Amino acid sequence: MKNTGINIKSEAELIKQIKNGEDEALLDLCFRYKPLINKVKGMYHVRYYDNQDWEQDAMIICHASAKSFDLNKGKFGSYFKTRLINHARSLVRYDNAYRRQALKQSVSLETAKKNNLMPLNKSFVSIPEIPLSEHIAILTGRLSTLEANALLVGLGVIKQKDVIEKLKISKLTLSRARSRLAQKMRQTLLD
């Protein structure tokens, strides 16, 4: 191996520099643990969390871990991994608790009928609120009512005839909505 003139510092040196307030060493330490950060990011899905959010959180946790790590005990990698995974689990728990709020506020149809509450009258079936990924959430947010119904027809959730009758549209209008849907899918999911 050639010596390129670059000074490669040990993990312990980087941790000592971070403890002394030399935050430039943090980038080097985070770079060393980039594969670990990517692995944890891939293991946990948090709605509306993108790569920058994960990297920023990982850097904050790496900094806090380096500051509190005792160089005489154990390995830093294990310590950082545990803290990063615990943070990811906390994010998932918080996200799931947020999703359950809708269930707490919901009322059964029987209770609604008994209390003379009228449910919302929608002429289409709504797409589930819990997206499989951020891209799908973005896509569904961009769809018009007609395009959402075209998607549901394409998925086999509802029949084309039912959509045409409920929305009082022609087959050509539904076909055009499918074309717009395909275009939006390509833009959102492939970009």
Q: How many β-strands, per DSSP?
A: 0
Q: What summary fits the major beta sheet?
A: none
Number of helices: 10
Helicity level, as a percent range?
55-70%
C-alpha end-to-end distance: 40 Å
The run of helices and strands is HHHHHHHHHH
Beta-strand residue fraction: under 5%
Overall geometry? elongated
Uncertain stretches of 5 or more adjacent residues: 1-6, 124-131
Can you describe what's shown?
The chain is an all-alpha fold. About 70% of the residues lie in helices and about 0% in strands. It contains ten helices and no strands. It has helices at about 10-20, 25-30, 35-45, 50-70, 75-105, 110-115, 135-140, 145-155, 160-165, 170-190. Helix 4 (about 50-70) packs across helix 5, helix 7 packs antiparallel against helix 10 and helix 8 (about 145-155) crosses helix 10. The longest helix has 30 residues, at about 75-105. About 15% of the residues are buried. The model is unreliable at about 1-5 and about 125-130 (pLDDT under 50).
